[in-house]
Design a protein that fits this description.
The complex is a heterodimer of chains A (about 210) and B (about 220). Chain A has about 210 residues and is an alpha/beta fold. Chain A has one domain (about 5-205): P-loop containing nucleotide triphosphate hydrolases (Rossmann fold). Chain A has five helices and eight strands, in the order E-E-E-H-E-E-H-H-H-E-H-E-E. In chain A, the strands form two sheets. In chain A, strands 5-6-7-3-8 form a five-stranded parallel sheet, with helices on both faces. In chain A, strands 2-1-4 form a three-stranded antiparallel sheet, with helices on one face. In chain A, strand 1 and strand 2 form a beta hairpin. In chain A, helix 2 runs parallel beside helix 4 and helix 3 crosses helix 4 (about 140-150). Chain B has about 220 residues and is mainly alpha-helical. Chain B has one domain (about 5-220). Helix content of chain B is about 85%, strand content about 0%. In chain B, helix 3 runs antiparallel to helix 8 (about 160-185) and helix 7 runs antiparallel to helix 8. The chains are: A alpha/beta (about 210), B mainly alpha (about 220). Chains A and B meet through helix 2 of A and helix 1 and helix 5 of B.
C-alpha cells in the first residue's frame, strides 16, 4: 500500500465567511497537485487547513499508510508567505535550528534529508552561511526558507506561491527539487498562479461561488 | 530526545541577547524605575530602607511585563509560530523551554542587578541578600504566568497593554509573598521561611499551569 493524502468533505470558514465547502481530494505518493484560482478564493486557506493550522468547519484529513503516531499536519512541510527567519541569526543558525527542532514526518531509506550545508549548496546560498539573515535579498530569504524542506524529511510539501521572488535559475532548481521529492514518493500540493515546472501535475481550480 | 529543546533554548537565548532582543531593555527599565524612587520619595533613608524590597519587587514585575509581549508575537509575525505548531513537538514543553530561555535572558539579569540597585535604596546587606534570593525564586513565576497572557494576546496588534492588565492580577500573590519574605528577613519576630516556601510553591505551580494554559491559547490562536 502506498502512502496517500486523503481529504474528505472539507469545508472552511474564516471570519464567519464560508471559503469553500465539500471539497474532497486524494493524492497518492509521487503525485503533485496545483491549486489555482483567482485571488481570495481560498487557495492559502486550503493549504493551511491541510497543514492543520486552521480547523476545518467540517470534514477530515488523513494520511493513509503514514506514521500513525503523527497527525496529518505533522507529515507536512508548510512553505507559506512568511519565511520564519530571524534577522538577528545567521543563515546557518536559522537553518540549524529548524533542522534540530522539526520532527521528521517519517524515517526510512527513501527519505534522505540533506545536511544544512548541502541544502544551502543545493540552493546556491552556501556562500552566505555566516551572514545574518537580515542582509539577505528577498529571493535569498525564500531560498533559505526552502532549504528547511530539504533538511528535514517530511513526505508532504504544502507550498504557497513557491516561485514568488525567485529568479529563473532558482525556479528551475526548485522544479528539480520538487521532481526529486516526487520521485522519492513524496506528495506536493502547491497554490500557484504559474505553471508548475513539473512533468505531471494535477490541477484543482477553485472558483468563487456564483 | 533533548536535542530539539537545546536547540530551541539556544535560539531564544541568542535572540534575546542580540540586536533587537529584550535582555538589556529590561535591565535598563529596572534601573530607571529604581533610580527615580529616591527622588520621588525624598532623602529619608529609613523610609527608603523600609519600602526598598517592595520597590525592587515592583520594578522587577514591571520590567518582566515589558518584555513579555514579544514572547510569542515575534514568532507569529515571521511565521515561525505556524511551523512550531506543526513541528510534532509537545507544545507545553515548547512553551516551558521558551519561558526558561526568556527568563535566563531577561529575568536573571534583573536578579543580578538587584543587589547593585539596592544600594540606591539604602538596604542593609541582609535585606539585599533576601531580595536577591526572593527575586531569584519568584521571577520565574512572573514569566510563566505572563506566558499565558502573551499567548492569549498573541494575535493582537499592540497587545502589550492588554497583557499587562491580564497578568498583573495573577502576579499579585507572587508579589505579596516575595515582598513579605524579603521584609521578614530583616524584621526579627516574623519567620522568613514560611512566605519564602509559599513563593517557591507559586513558582512550581505556575511552571505547570503556565505552559499548559499558554499552549492551549496558542492552539486556538492560529488562523
Amino acid at each position: 500500500m502506498t502512502m496517500r493524502l486523503v481529504a474528505e468533505n472539507l469545508s472552511c470558514e474564516r471570519g464567519g465567511r464560508r471559503v469553500f465547502s465539500d471539497l474532497a481530494l486524494t493524492l497518492e505518493a509521487g503525485r503533485a497537485l496545483a491549486v489555482t484560482g483567482p485571488n481570495g478564493v481560498g487557495k492559502s486557506s486550503l493549504l493551511r487547513v491541510l497543514a492543520g493550522l486552521v480547523q476545518p468547519a467540517s470534514g477530515s484529513i488523513r494520511i493513509e499508510d503514514g506514521d500513525p503516531e503523527l497527525s496529518a499536519g505533522e507529515h507536512c512541510h508548510y512553505y507559506g508567505h512568511l519565511d520564519a527567519l530571524k534577522p538577528a541569526l545567521s543563515v546557518l543558525e536559522n537553518l540549524d535550528f529548524w533542522t534540530s527542532f522539526l520532527a521528521p514526518g517519517r524515517t526510512g531509506a527513501r527519505w534522505q534529508p540533506m545536511t544544512p550545508i548541502e541544502a544551502l549548496e543545493a540552493l546556491g546560498i552556501d556562500h552566505a552561511g555566516d551572514l545574518p539573515a537580515a542582509y539577505l535579498s528577498a529571493g535569498q530569504r525564500r531560498r533559505l526558507a526552502l532549504a528547511r524542506l530539504l533538511v528535514v524529511a517530511r513526505p508532504v510539501w504544502l507550498l504557497d506561491e513557491p516561485t514568488s521572488a525567485l529568479d529563473a535559475a532558482s525556479e528551475a532548481r526548485l522544479g528539480e527539487l520538487m521532481s526529486d521529492h516526487l520521485a522519492a514518493g513524496g506528495i506536493i500540493v502547491a497554490a500557484t498562479h504559474q505553471t508548475m515546472p513539473l512533468a505531471e501535475v494535477g490541477t484543482l481550480r477553485l472558483e468563487a461561488p456564483a | 530526545m533533548s536535542g530539539w529543546m537545546g536547540a530551541l533554548f539556544l535560539r531564544e537565548l541568542r535572540l534575546s541577547l542580540r540586536v533587537g532582543g529584550g535582555a538589556l531593555i529590561g535591565v535598563l527599565f529596572f534601573l530607571a524605575v529604581i533610580t527615580v524612587i529616591p527622588f520621588g520619595v525624598g532623602p529619608d533613608l529609613n523610609l527608603l530602607a523600609l519600602i526598598g524590597p517592595a520597590v525592587l519587587w515592583i520594578g522587577a514585575l514591571l520590567a518582566t511585563l515589558l518584555g513579555l509581549d514579544r514572547l510569542f508575537q515575534a514568532d507569529r509575525d515571521d511565521g515561525s509560530l505556524d511551523l512550531m505548531l506543526m513541528a510534532g513537538r509537545p507544545l507545553e514543553v515548547l512553551v516551558l523551554v521558551k519561558c526558561l530561555a526568556h527568563w535566563v535572558g531577561t529575568g536573571l539579569p534583573l536578579v543580578l542587578s538587584a543587589p547593585v540597585l539596592s544600594i540606591f535604596l539604602n538596604l542593609e546587606p541582609l535585606a539585599i541578600g533576601a531580595v536577591a534570593l526572593t527575586l531569584l525564586v519568584g521571577t520565574p513565576a512572573l514569566t510563566l504566568i505572563g506566558a499565558i497572557g502573551a499567548a492569549l494576546t498573541v494575535s493582537l496588534r499592540r497587545g502589550g497593554l492588554l497583557l499587562a492588565v491580564l497578568v498583573v492580577p495573577f502576579s499579585i500573590p507572587v508579589l505579596i509573598f516575595g515582598v513579605s519574605a524579603s521584609g521578614a528577613a530583616v524584621t526579627e519576630p516574623t519567620p522568613f521561611l514560611t512566605p519564602f516556601l509559599l513563593l517557591a510553591a507559586l513558582t512550581l505551580i505556575s511552571a505547570v499551569v503556565g505552559p499548559v494554559a499558554a499552549a492551549m491559547a496558542l492552539r486556538f490562536s492560529s488562523d
